[in-house]
Every structure is written in structure tokens, then in C-alpha cells.
Design a protein that fits this description.
alpha/beta, Rossmann fold, 2 domains, two-stranded antiparallel sheet, 12 helices, about 20% strand, hydrolase, amino-acid biosynthesis, HAD-like_SerB, L-phosphoserine phosphatase activity, magnesium
Length: about 230
Amino acid sequence: PRLAVFDMDSTLIQQEVIDELARSLDLYASVSAITEAAMRGEPPYTDFTSSLLARVALLRGVEPGIWRHLREEVITFSPGAREVVRCLRSDGWVTAVLSGGFINLAAWVKWELGMDFAFANELEEDGAGRLTGRVKEGTRVVDGERKRELMLEIAKGKGVGREGMLAVGDGSNDLLMMGEAGLGVAFCAKPKVQERAPARINGGSLVDVLYVLGWAEGEIREVMSR
């Protein structure tokens, strides 16, 4: 068995979900400034958790309808996302989305793409389903180290060795899982991440991951026509 794990934001999907949530609250500038600094690994946000909690705090009061709005109006899958998951699954790979974003959308991405697992941050809600600005008590923030751990836990449960692991992402919090996997691929990543990633893809389509794994165009077409 083999295991492929993917980051969600700016990898499987084309958006940064927290920025889109902020846009709905007119907080886009303040939240995306933190997101950008965090992605570049700049202080005081060198620690993913501190930057995440700072951004989540700004989301207090977001209404529950926002998730449906994002799914139906805002979120778009990256070119090749459906192909890469479908082809890997047809070849017996276990697939997972490991996201430093939110389970409200990661679970939907998993379902929409037909993946096996989804792990992401869980946001606390009040009685009316509005966000409180906090991460759910008793849950762990999905940072780079947690992504690495989750990948290894899934692999262990499925009997997958290191050489059978593929990790794809674009942010600094993806470097640990990329480094641990047999093949780590930076997808259209930030310069700092590209420098440190084991392999890089910059063509803008996740289908390139299949080419790296040795798939031919005809094989991909064949799977997608089924």
C-alpha cells in the first residue's frame, strides 16, 4: 500500500480559506497580512500556531451560513486536483487531506474528491453556530509537526513504509511532512519553501505530480474516462 497526503489551501484548492472568511467580515487586510507573514516564516508569526490563533480570533461572530457560501460561490479546486486523487486511488493509494485550515471545508474537500481521510483545525462555535474566535477546546492545532504525525499515524495504520509516502504542499508548515515522506513535492510554493523542498512543481497543475510518479498522459486519460 502507498499513501498520498495533500495540503488543502493553495494546493488542492486555489484559495486560502481563512482569507476568504475574513473577506466576508471586511477583515481581509488584517488577516491576510498575518497569513502572508506566516507563510514566509516572518516574526512574530514564525510559529504557525500563534499566527493561526491570532487570525482565528479575528473571525469571532462569523455566521454558520458562511461555509455553504464558500463551498458554492468561492472555493475552486486547483487544476489537476480531481485527476491526481482519482488516478492515485485507482492505483490503490490511500489519500488524505492534512490541513492547517478548517475541518468545515477539509471534510467537504475529502468528500468532493473521494479521499480517505481529512484532518484540519476544529473551530469552536456558540449555540447558534457562530464562530467564537477560538479553536475547539481539547483539539490540537494542525501545524507542521501535527501534519507529519498524522501522516505517520495513517501510514502505520495502513502498513505503509516511508518509501510509499507522498506529501504535497505549498507552505512552510508542509516542509516536515514533505521531508518525512519518500517523495515530498512543493506545489507552486513560496520561495523559502521551494528552497527547502525535496522536489518542486511549478506548472500550476497537480497532474504534474502524476508525471513525477511516472504516469503517462494516456494512462491518466484512461482513468478519467471511466
